Amino acid sequence: MNIEQNLQEIVIKAVADIYNKEAAPAMVQVQKTKKEFEGDLTVVVFPLLKLSGKKPEDTANEIGEYLVKNWDHARKFNVVKGFLNISLKQDTITKLLLHINSVEDFGITPITDKSPKILLEFSSPNTNKPLHLGHLRNNFLGDSISRILKAGGNNVVKVNLVNDRGIHICKSMLAWQKWGNGETPESSGMKGDHLIGKYYVLFDQHYKDEIKQLMAEGLTEDDAKQKAPSIIEAHQMLQKWEAGDPDTVALWKQMNNWVYDGFDVTYKLMGISFDKIYHESETYLEGKQYVVDALNKGICQKDETGATYIDLTADGLDKKILLRSDGTTVYMTQDLGTAALRYRQYHFDQHIYVVGNEQDYHFKVLKLVLKKMGFEWSDAIKHFSYGMVELPNGKMKSREGTVVDADDLIAEMTETARKTSEELGKLNEMTPEQQDVTVSTIAMAALKYFILKVDPKKTILFNPAESIDFNGNTGPFVLYTYARIHSIFRKLEEKSVARVTLNPDYEGFNAAEAELVKRIADFPNVVAEACNLCSPAQIANYVYELSKQYNQFYHDCKIVSEENAQAREFRIILSDNTGKVIAKCLNMLGINVLERM
Hints:
By secondary structure, this protein is an alpha/beta fold. The protein is built from 22 helices and 14 strands. The strands form four sheets. Strands 7-6-5-11-12 form a five-stranded parallel sheet, with helices on both faces. Strands 1-2-4-3 form a four-stranded antiparallel sheet. It has a three-stranded antiparallel sheet with strand order 8-9-10.
């Protein structure tokens, strides 16, 4: 029972009956009536004027009169210029609630064999540092978008490309080789990813000292950066790795395995998983072969240094290097190979890369290069670009060690959640095990919700203390609303309150209850819009408004103690379905629910 779709259909019939003209569905725009006007739904009449041949007010009045006579749900109407505002009948609200209650998975589109296949790449960490706050936004966005796309009826494959090779990896390896003294995660007591990150920072410190020394000897900054001994050694190590030098490869495997073990712990804390994990070391050679083939076909050229490039200047871009003069590959090379490999494996309808806006140019180039190389599916490539996460003191820089590690932040959030929960008495009468689950769930809800409620394209200024608040637009507030609803059902059971069958013609509800029903009824539209925009913020802000509205209803209306059986049953069903929708929204945000808080 989609009231808006139903209204659209009857308006199309009205135009046919009144004006003997056919209105395309796109011409009939239905929206919620603005708060300052009377009504529930509004039809925008302006697109229909060329069919009616009349003034906006006259057209709206004629269609309005038709609806009141011929549409079972229209009680009355009013016209404001070219806007036709329809007030629904009282029993329509009850029938709408009963319909919502009868649909097994209301708002969720089932996945079938004909569902579009979407590959969604996110996370894509480097094995030279631990995951940090910026990675949290990437992982939370990627995981949430995958859930939203699935809820919209898409067959989604979550993929992760681990950047496990390249000059940045060699920097950590070289630093550990020079100054590590055999240190391991076991000997240091550090997670493997944190240990490797320590040596990445150490390399940068030595590298900067060398640059300063060379500049003091008269070199320009650019020359000093290229001639510093550390960077030369790192490039030599990369060449050895690509040549398959046994010692270099053995060290690379050892250090990467330390990092993978560390990543696994963090992913588990975040509740993140993948359907397929790719490694750059396994795909870059395929990309390299495509570049060689393109060179032979004249699609690519070599410059005076011997580097292979593709000229994109005619397309408003630049000359993009695809192979360095020493034959080593760049990021673009492996992305070409990985994309082609994935298409062969999955024949995707769309491939979405969840990557920060600092890489906007990279993905413009990737899509264009794939097209020039003859891959017809290149138009299926889409870059989901999002803003950075910044701290009050500015951007984070991994090589300078000015990052907030994901593990440290999660630990801090968990401790803050425990302290806040204890102060509010939320953990009373819980076992230690229940307290741990509750605290970790609240912490992750606070963290994920704070990040996901913001429009993805906007930069986030992260404030941990603000995110943990149990009031306002926060994860804990929505969690508490869900737990509050479950407390109602425990009370109903404790008091053995008898349930009755709700009369579909019941009209005893108040305006606040009717608005809450309409808010729940809008859930499928919200999912569709979030799916279309790949925007968790749509879901987060909807579930906040729903929770806020429910709490006002809970404050104003009796439920368990309501003596009128029909009124009580209406409110019970309303509460139950509010809880179900809240749970679905939180699930789409990657947040677990709690039945007690």
